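Appendix B: a complete holo record

For completeness, this appendix reproduces one full record from the ligand-bound portion of the collection. The bound molecule is S-adenosylmethionine. The inputs are the chain sequence and the ligand SMILES; the output is the full three-dimensional arrangement of the complex, encoded as structure tokens. No fields have been trimmed.
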Amino acid sequence: MVDSAEANAAIWKSEATVADWVATAGSREHGRTRAREVLAELLPFADDEAFTFVDLGAGTGAASRAVLDSYPQSSGILADYSPQMREEGRRALAGYAGRYRYVELDLGTGRWPDELDGGLQAVISSLCVHHLPDLRKAALFGEILGRLAPGGWFLDYDPVAAEDPTVAEAWQRVQDRRDPQAASGRSQRSPEEQARWENHVRHISPLGPQLQFLRDAGFEAVDTYWKELDHVIFGGRRPA
Ligand SMILES: C[S@@+](CC[C@H](N)C(=O)[O-])C[C@H]1O[C@@H](n2cnc3c(N)ncnc32)[C@H](O)[C@@H]1O
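The structure of the chain with S-adenosylmethionine bound, as generated:
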């Protein structure tokens, strides 16, 4: 039996899936503009400050680009375990040469590259942590805290699950109004699309416990800093 980590890796390391994901990214990104901006705004740096951030599960760098655009002196270390996503990212980031580099990191393992061992000024993540089981999310938040410099922030933009089915219905109702095509597409998924959907939702979990994971790891200033329906930006700071 294929476990969920293997299924997730098979999807993100598939040439065909990544090609499709990149081809359809434009329409998805359209609705994410504000979230991308808010995540960048939350970083505690002056507009002209030079700093380095780490983007976990960076993919083709959508979150990183928002930060790089907002802070022209910033640099990013983009961590992802998919060679296909890193390759696509190099194309998407062609205009940012010299301001970013990719590192290979499997967030499922707890084994980090030496260069991310400590003193990190800020860590961001976007649309990736939801792929990890809750036990791993909790451990990851501890690993991030241990690698941040004192006072360093971690901010995550991700979908969360509703604990109340009526809330889930309300979220779905709004999403379907906004994208009626997606609503009809749900009943017509190909087996491959269904596998990707199941992989997407498998480990999405409620927000409350994830905020508690951050507190338990030792973060302060833990909050949900932005929210729209099932998508949130949450995070906190390593105590100074
Ligand atoms: C939905 S994409 C999001 C990419 C990007 N952060 C964004 O906001 O567009 C998820 C990314 O997480 C990466 N990913 C998933 N599981 C991972 C893991 N265990 N370790 C490292 N990267 C992972 C995938 O390769 C993919 O690039």
